[in-house]
Amino acid sequence: MTTPTLDDLALPADAPAFADLPLPEALHRAAAALGFVEPTAIQADAIPVLLAGRDLVGVAQTGTGKTAAFGLPLLAHVDPDVRAVQAIVLTPTRELALQVADALTSFAAHLPEVTVVAVYGGAPYLPQQRALAKGAQVVVGTPGRVIDHLDRGTLALDRVARVVLDEADEMLTMGFAEEVDRILGAVPAGRQVALFSATMPAGIRRVAEQHLVDPVRVSVTRQSSTVATVRQTYAVVPHRHKVGALVRVLATTDADGAIVFVRTRQDAERVGSELVARGLQAAYLSGDVAQGEREKIVDRLRSGALRVLVATDVAARGLDVERIGLVVNLDLPRGAEAYVHRIGRTGRAGRAGEAMTFVTPPERPKLRAIERTTRVAIEEVPVPSPVQVSAHRVDALLARTDERVAAGRLDVYRNAVAAHLATRPELDLAELLAAVAALAVGDEGPVLPTADDLDEDLARIAETPRRDTGEEPRHQRRAESSGPRYRVSVGHRDGLAPGGLVGALTGEGGLTGKDIGKIDIFGSFTLVDIPGGLTEEAFERLSRTRVVGRPLHIRLDTGPRPPREGGPHPSRDSGPRPSRDGAGHYQRGADTRPRHRSPRP
User: Fold this and answer.
1) What pTM did the predictor assign?
2) What is the pLDDT of residue 454?
3) N or C: fewer beta carbons within 10 Å in the chain?
4) Closest to 57 measured CA to CA, from 180, 182, 220
């Protein structure tokens, strides 16, 4: 078989259609089902190059369609009869690995013999090992976990013919340069390499020069504009309260339909199921939903039979429904391009729309980065209160009364009200109507306990200062404080703010705002008072929690030792630092050589 040239695969110059791409029929069917009509700039430039077998350097950001740009040609070259790894995609984070694996799986919907497996740190080895042993042809993984599987002998790269480095600049920023070099060194010579990066710093150029052969370079312009007809807002919500806050937002919106974006298919199923359990007309879409079922769900959304759709970015591709008046980013998008792509689902054809984004306290800097890129200020708004939810429901109920009066046949209700008032002459008619309205919207009164402490946690976050002065607090103990004090291994130099730590403690530790006392943030660590202490379960959860991209490493503080003159505090600022291993874990050991890693925003 003759390898096609770039001239053979070039797209027509005038308004190319996705159907013009020289892909196998099975991939065209999958792309059409996902709503691909016209290729994006990176797809039009990169797909012919990769189909021709050339190495490629692509300068493109998340949200430009680059997953399809490398994923479709990659799948086109996979031999389904060979039950061995033939292609590997490296990503910097487990979230991106799952997202890319979901996308490739949806592209391979009509290639039943092709299997895609995601491998990443923080998850058990055995399920990944079993999936690899069954003969997966495509592996998507983080560099650390790929190295782990290589060392264990559970992953072989001797049949790999194609390698993709996705978000290569972020991989190098996170300190994965050595791992990437080792993986590329383990792949046979003559393989095809595609490198995608948002920027081209010196480290990326070095990787390209060392591992790519005469690469074709393509670049697409960053998408940085948002829809003018969309009101963009955000609310700061601890992770554990996101679904509760979402229910309140949906209960107070006048939008005909809403799309809720989440990161993973597991999140889509969990959130969609919880909304249904709470009485909402909701459904979810992910890469696992069959095409026939997807079409039924979209038809219900268009007709108004379905009000809320929970979806991943991949599943929402090609989704165009005019009645969508609200987009909720339940999880903060990975970048500005993904943000623009998501909120573009509303405010179409000149119609007004609203986009609300939920951020946890530590994620505020990421939101600021999106604002800088899109050059649009995103307004902070409070989560609707229970009173606002009830008021909105009553307004909607009363708005329907004129129509109900016009419909007639109210005698049975009029008689029932008259009989009720006759037995209670002291009862005011307005008071009775107010009680009936409250019952109609599900408000049973203040005697019932609150379902959760969402409002208390939100109030605590609102009261927490956004920024510190950056100065070191005085080394002093609080004689007036009672209860334990805890130390976490994150401080000023990591970009920690009080709100970030409060969000972690309330969102992951099961605490409420009133459970948290004084917080002292130092350069490399932080002390926090928790008068009631932590349960064993809460301590275990927090031991696995990260803030500003770093693990908390929480432990009971044993108190200060007298500091040395002019030197660091011996009990807090000396000793080996946590180092990051290739699988995305942190560990202490004898090797304390600095890693090339910057704190992530």
Assistant:
1) 0.49
2) 76
3) N
4) 220
Instruction: Tell me how far apart the alpha carbons of residues 331 and 189 are, in angstroms, rounded to a whole number.
Output: 40
* Residue 183 pLDDT > 90: yes
- Amino acid identity at 133: A
Q: Does pLDDT of 575 surpass 80?
A: no
Structure-token pair, residue 548: 């500003």
Length of the chain: 601
User: For residue 141, which of 83, 199, 180 has the smallest C-alpha distance?
Assistant: 180
Beta bridge partners, 192, equal 162
Cβ atoms of 353 and 347 within 8 Å: the answer is yes
pLDDT for 547 beyond 90: no
Nearest alpha-carbon partner for 170 in 334, 408, 411, 361 = 334
Per-residue pLDDT at 460 exceeds 60: yes
Ordered domains of the chain (ranges, CATH): 6-219 (3.40.50.300), 230-384 (3.40.50.300), 388-440 (no CATH), 454-587 (3.30.70)
How far apart are alpha carbons 327 and 352 in whole angstroms?
12
Strand partners of residue 58: 196, 218
Are 215 and 187 in contact by the 8 Å Cβ rule? The answer is: no
Nearest to 187 by CA among 161, 208, 155: 161
Please give the DSSP secondary-structure letter assigned to residue 446: T
What residue has token string 């031999």? 79
Is the CB of residue 251 less than 8 Å from the CB of residue 279?
no
How much of the chain exceeds pLDDT 70, in percent?
81
Q: pLDDT: is 548 or 150 the higher one?
A: 150
Nearest Cα residue to 343 out of 198, 247, 221, 229: 229
Give dist(CA 376, CA 371) in Å, integer. Answer: 5
Closest of 346, 351, 349, 371 to residue 359, by C-alpha: 371
- Asked if 116 and 88 touch (Cβ cutoff 8 Å), the reply is no
- Neighbour-count burial for 218-240, b at 16+ CB within 10 Å, e otherwise: bebebbeebbeebbbebbbbbbb
Q: What is the pLDDT of residue 146?
A: 96
